[in-house]
Amino acid sequence: MTNSIIHIFLAIVMPPLLLGVIGKTKAAFAGRVGAPFVQPYYDIIRLLQKGTVFSTTTSWVFRAGPIVALATAAVAALLIPFGAHPSPISFDGDMILYAYLFALGRFFTMAAALDTGSSFEGMGSAREATYSCLAEPTLFFALITLSRLSGSYSLSGMLVNISIGVWMHTSAALLLLVGGMFVVLLAENCRIPFDDPNTHLELTMIHEVMVLDHSGPAFAIIQYAAALKLFVLGAFFVHLALPYSTGNPLLDWGLFIISMLELAVVIGAVESVMARLRLIRIPQLLVAATILAAFSTLLVIR
Amino acid sequence: MHSFLQGAFDPALVALSAALVIGCAGIPGLFLRKPGPGQIISTTAIILAALAGVPAALQLLFSHTATTYTLEWGLPFGSCELVIDPLSAFFLLPVFLVTAAGSLFAVGYWPAAGHRTTEPGLTFFYGLLASSMAILLMARNGVFFVMVWEVMALSAYFLLVTEHEREDVRRAGIVYLIATHTGTAALFVYFSLLAAQTGSFVLPVAGSLSALSPFAPVIALAAFVGFGAKAGIMPLHTWLPSAHANAPSHVSAVMSGVMLKMGLYGIFRTLTFFHDPPLLWGGVLTVCGISSALLGIIFAVAQRDLKRLLACSSIENIGIITTGLGVALLGVSSHNSVLMYLGMAGALLHILNHSFFKPLLFLGSGAIIHAAGTREMNLMGGLGKGMPRVGFLFLVGSVAICGIPPLNGFVSEFLLYLGFFSQLKTNSLIYLLFLAPLLALVGGLAMVAFTKLYGSVFLGTPRSPAAAYPHEAGMTMLAPMALFALLCLLVGLAPQLALRLVSPAIAAFFPQSAMAAVSAEYGAIMDKLSLAGVLLLTAAALAALLWRWRLGQARVTAAPTWGCGYQRGTARMQYGGTAFSELAVSVFDGIMRQRVERPTLTGLFPGKTRCSDTPTETLLERIIVPMFSLAGIIFGFLHRLQHGLMHIYMLYIFVTLFILMLWAN
Question: What pLDDT, in 10s, does the model give residues B331-362?
């Protein structure tokens, strides 16, 4: 019970901090001081207090977009285990629900973007639709590999199972998986090199362009839901890449928080040293990630 | 209600009479001078028959027994048996439901007053189609089966060519007719071989034939071609998109929601005859299924015609069902009861689900076409504001068909995924695992197709003057759609009930297996899934409340969409359907191609010109069409036999029969 409460508390409070850490890392690379770590919290609170402008072309679908995006990310956060602790809700096959929840959020985000009738937002959702459907198989290959390694059909079972010992046995497969899933993590969360969350008006972006017309509280919800999605997918990735556990419940929570912050630093570092890819390169990289994950599956089922 | 019915009526008799009433419902309309009453009589009769038929079918489904009637027909093909067992009863459910909903929709969509010449025929053949499908499910004599099958195929043809003054409709009709008769020819082979095996035209009882006999593969292949052509399994799908797109929308709903399932029923039924099917059968079904799913949805993504897109997505869904069936068959061959159960449950539940959301979408497309006056998605836009109710119901259908929680499409795909993953522990058919990422890709592409459809039809601003003033559909059109939307939500939120609904049909399929333990295990998972669905809705409600509260605290203003500084944006500058899917189509360039005809521009101020794009299937263009043209040239000499003189045709039949009888003696 205590663990469930800590789980929910972390899922509610911590996501914007990751954005803060990423921002700080990028600033450090650029030789700036950067905004404080808690800047994303300030941004969200300020947006919540602002007024809203609705486009006259929009209908209720536009209003439903942010709500569904937040709800799906929140339910997904309940399915994923944080660190060594199993998730509050866990059942056989929950990994499929986890994958499809993001699809639901994406459906409504894209519909909301198309509802504005803006060519920019249509462009963004067309890209999002294509890239996300190319990223989907990678996640499923990863789930198969993990399920095979652990013999479990639930996210908690398959992710908590990974330890240094498992790494020793199947380092090749897990290494391939880490590569593939890192690409998916960056693509799904619209980070560089796929997308740039900081630009707002360029023709090369995906997610940010879809939410151009959202303002005020709706935009706050979108920002928060995006941070939560990064947090949830990041928690998945951290299990693969940093599978440490001590056995002490409290220490494990601390370890999980540190691992997430490390992940944020790594993402910040990648964003600082890489440029955004050309759009036509993105599908190639996504398919390459799928093949990496498929290799790892082949290695464990042979 | 069930016990009351049991006391009063025999449910099998109720189902049979309901089928006959539906078949006769259109007859009064043929003789009434005044337009209108005929349609009302027919609709009332069909709805009443369905209201009796659905509970009867449910009761038959849960009774776990088969009711047999024997018809003495005096023809030399053995006794004509009508049997309703749980498998037939399961397939009867969509027949009654979709037919009734479609006939109510027709009152608003194809009113007799506006279509004086076509309405009586349409109503008559509509009833005949539904009735023949219901009786087909009961038929257990091969010859009778083929007769009913032909009634079904031909009434579908007459429904399809309702608007025969249009050239594309006539063309679609011809293609359909050729395809369906190719299938029927295969069925002749199939039933003759079956009769040769068993000695009578009465269909064999479950598990009575050996799959190892030399004839068995030929029988199975004939069944696959004959029934697969009706179901639209790749590579026998080529007739499907144009046929479903050109029929009136409520007919498309029945054709796609129910008639395709008759082909699947044939395959299901055939497989029950054999014990110990080889692994190859399941393998072939699985490969054909997953390629139908993948290619079908790629075709759908590229379409610009609203109804063609829906028709292509039917190929996808039939593919998913066939994959489930193939996986279940692999489970039977490898004596793996978990795989068998999950594949079968997924396939059957997807049959039911597809007969909820596909009719919902096709009926919705009828309402859209009424409002916008076109099927071209690139000319629509912004219809959601004029017709919010249709918009909402259509959104439910779109989310359901993408297989997204918390609606019904997710439940059946979830069962299939569990089936694929279950192979991880057994090690026997481990390569089935690769179906999981493929199915995920299919799901992702379905989302491209349906966000494209929904976005370009209902969202944004109107792209043509015709779509600018839509009107909300009437109650008779909205009520059937609302029923289907409710069913989608119900199955999504209470999947354990849906699983209980398909269980008797699975048991009918493989009575030998110990299903109780497996079904209890997955029933418990379904409970969790239902909990997750409720949780999701609660989370959405909480988020909505939070937002409403914040909205109330500050100023809300309305302004035009931000054009990034550009002031003179027009509706044509929006992302249209073709533009939306262009990127996704380009990834699958070899399979589907967007053929663009660009004008050559000359001079500094070029005049007005045209640019057009057509989605083309590479397989169809490169292989199937040339093959048919070649066949046309080779068999050109047969044209001489074809002169349109009816009495000579009848003479052909007589002479053929005579020669055959001489040969037989």
Answer: 988 888 889 899 999 999 999 999 999 999 99
CA distance linking residue B528 with residue B530, whole number of Å: 5
What is the sign of the dihedral through the CA atoms of B303, B304, B310 and B311?
A: negative
Q: Of B290, B297, B398, B583, which to mutate for an interface test with A (greatest number of A Cβ within 10 Å)? A: B583
Confidence band (pLDDT; 50, 70, 90) for B1? very low
Residue type, B50: A
Which position has the token pair 């249509």? A122
Name every residue whose Cβ is closer than 8 Å to that of residue B95 and which is 6 or more positions away in sequence: B130, B133, B134, B137, B258
A129:B447 CB<8 A: yes
- Residue of B438, B441, B447, B567 to mutate, testing the A interface (most A Cβ within 10 Å of its Cβ): B447
CB B87 within 8 A of CB B268: yes
- Name the residue among A254, A250, A261 with its Cα closest to residue A3: A250
The answer to whether residues B178 and B239 touch, using CB atoms and an 8 Å cutoff, is: yes
| pLDDT tens-digit readout, A124-163 | 899 999 999 899 999 999 999 999 998 899 999 999 888 8
CB atoms within 10 A of CB B621: 12
- 8 A C-beta contact, residue B398 and residue B361: yes
Which residues of chain A are under the pLDDT cut of 50? none
Give how far the C-alpha of residue B584 lies from the chain's centroid of Cα atoms, to the nearest Å: 25
pLDDT confidence tier of residue B192, bands split at 50, 70 and 90: very high
| Nearest-CB residue to A57 (from B405, B437, B461) | B461
d(CA A66, CA A56): 18
Task: Tell me whether residues A71 and B560 touch, CB distance under 8 A.
Answer: no
Q: What number is the average pLDDT over the span B185-210?
A: 89
Of A127, A124, A102, A104, which Cα lies nearest the Cα of A210?
A: A124
**Domain extents in chain B:** 341-546
Q: How far is residue B150's CA from residue B513's CA, in Å, rounded to a whole number?
A: 36
Average model confidence (pLDDT) across chain B: 90
pLDDT tens readout for residues B260-271? 999 999 999 999
Q: Is there a contact between B556 and A51 if contact means CB atoms under 8 Å apart?
A: yes
Please check the confidence at residue B470 and state whether its pLDDT lies above 70: yes
B475-493 vs B86-109: helix axis angle to the nearest 10?
A: 150
Which B residues 376-415 touch A at CB under 8 Å?
A: 381-382, 384-385, 388, 391, 395, 399, 402-405, 410, 413-414
C-alpha dihedral sign at A137, A138, A139, A140: positive
Q: Contact at 8 Å (CB) between B255 and B313? A: no
Q: Where are the alpha helices (DSSP H) in A151-190?
A: 155-160, 164-169, 171-188
* B645 touches A: beta carbon within 8 Å: no
Q: What is the pLDDT of residue A201?
A: 59
Q: Is A66 exposed, middle or buried (0-12, 13-18, 19+ CB in 10 A)?
A: buried
- Domain-by-domain residue ranges, chain A? 2-301
Backbone angles phi, psi at B557, to 5 degrees: -125, 160
Neighbour tally for B650: CB within 10 Å: 10
Cβ <8 Å between B418 and A123: no
Model pLDDT for residues A180-190, shown as the tens digit of each residue: 999 999 998 88
Specify the pTM.
0.94
Among A130, A177, A228, pick the best mutation site for testing chain B contact (most B Cβ within 10 A). A130
Contact between chains at B424 and A151 (C-beta distance less than 8 A):
yes
